[in-house]
Specification:
The protein has 106 residues and is α+β, with helices and mostly antiparallel strands. The chain has a domain at 20-87: Conserved Hypothetical Protein Mth637, Chain: A (2-Layer Sandwich). The chain is 21% helix and 36% strand. It has two helices and six strands; from the N terminus they run E-E-E-E-H-E-E-H. The protein has helices at 53-66, 93-100; strands at residues 11-14, 17-26, 32-37, 40-45, 73-77, 83-89.
């Protein structure tokens, strides 16, 4: 099955990249991917939700996890919400999904 086309997938292909649905938990102890929920990847961020700091921290965290520059990650929607959509250029949905999927113990 193609993860990028799965209805529960948190990444979707678009021209020149993909979009990423994110549920953010600001003010956490550390930055980490903590799971998935309702078609979004859950990300804990140490940064507080003040003056856009959490949004900047989210962009930096995602760029680092994907091995991309920050300029290739942009906030499409959800600037003042915990639910956000990011635009990633240079990676397809399957690559993003694989890089950010929480590890599963079998």
């Amino acid at each position: 099955m193609n993860l990028a086309q799965d209805p529960d997938s948190f990444a979707r292909d678009v021209p020149d990249g993909c979009t990423l649905s994110v549920r953010v938990h600001p003010g956490a102890k550390k930055d980490a991917v903590t799971g998935t929920h309702a078609g979004a990847v859950k990300i804990a961020l140490h940064s507080p939700p003040v003056d856009g700091w959490a949004n900047e921290a989210l962009i930096a965290f995602i760029a680092d996890q994907l091995g991309l520059s920050r300029s290739r990650v942009s906030l499409v929607s959800g600037a003042s919400s915990r639910s956000k959509v990011l635009r990633i250029t240079g990676k397809n949905a399957a690559e993003v999904q694989a890089a950010l999927s929480p590890s599963l113990d079998c």
